[in-house]
Amino acid sequence: MTIEMAGKAGLTVDREGFEEANRKHQELSRTTSAGAFKAGLQDNSEIVTKMHTATHLLHAALHKVLGPSANQKGSNITPERLRFDFTWPEKMTDGQLAQVEALVNGWIKDAIPVEKKMTTVEAAKAEGAMALFGSKYGDQVSLYTIGDVSKEICSGPHVANTSELGSFKILKEQSSSAGVRRIKAVVEQPGA
């Protein structure tokens, strides 16, 4: 709504309050974009670390079930759940979701070591690593490899072995935006 439209509707506009709120928003945007890429993590707690590692397995499973065009568009991870957005043009079927969940749980049961090494973006890509966030990388990057399942440049915390995840459960699959789907999921410890 413009100031003119507000006036015609009989509303008043607090210009000073608006300008102050706008300045605060711009400052927050600048400081956030200047900070390190945090991979959508709320914190580095044990459960968030497990859920973050699970996103790597989820991404790999989506590639196996849907194909290489199912690429990560973003994630948000809290102690309660992981949220993973990816490119895909339509709702996933129950069968596809079951396949993805089974693959992730299979890799968890396989107790695969999660290995990290420091390298350059170019060297990581030469090894076949996914590098989805272009200019957000520095000169040296962390390359995480989970057996022959996943190889990604990533700055987030990871478990040492997939067995630490317990089990993986998809809670919901829905639309996020045009051409982007969203999966919400959790990792659960045995007996939890």
Mean pLDDT, to the nearest integer, reads 84
Q: Indicate the percent of residues in helices.
A: 25-40%
Main sheet: strand order: 1-2-7-6
Q: How big is the Rg?
A: 20 Å
Q: What percent of residues are in strands?
A: 25-35%
CATH secondary-structure class of the largest domain: Alpha Beta
Oligomer: single chain
**N-to-C span:** 50 Å
Beta strand count: 7
Count of alpha and pi helical runs: 5
Which architecture of the largest domain would the CATH scheme give at its second level? 2-Layer Sandwich
Identify low-pLDDT runs: 28-38
Structural domain count: 2
CATH homology-level superfamily of the largest domain: Threonyl-trna Synthetase, Chain A, domain 2
Question: What's the overall geometry?
Answer: globular
User: What would you call the structural class?
Assistant: alpha+beta
Instruction: Tell me the CATH topology of the largest domain.
Output: Threonyl-tRNA Synthetase, Chain A, domain 2
**N to C succession of SSEs:** HHHEEHEHEEEE
What is this structure, in a nutshell?
The chain has about 190 residues and is of the alpha+beta class. It has five helices and seven strands.
3D architecture notes:
With 192 residues, the chain is an alpha+beta fold. It has two domains: 3-34, no CATH class; 46-188, Threonyl-tRNA Synthetase, Chain A, domain 2 (2-Layer Sandwich), CATH 3.30.980.10. Helices cover 36% and strands 25% of the residues. It is built from five helices and seven strands. The strands form two sheets. A four-stranded antiparallel sheet has the order 1-2-7-6, with helices on one face. Strands 3-4-5 form a three-stranded antiparallel sheet. A hairpin with a 4-residue loop joins strand 1 and strand 2 (82-87). Helix 3 (46-66) packs across helix 4 (94-109). The chain is globular. Residues 28-38 have low confidence and may be disordered.
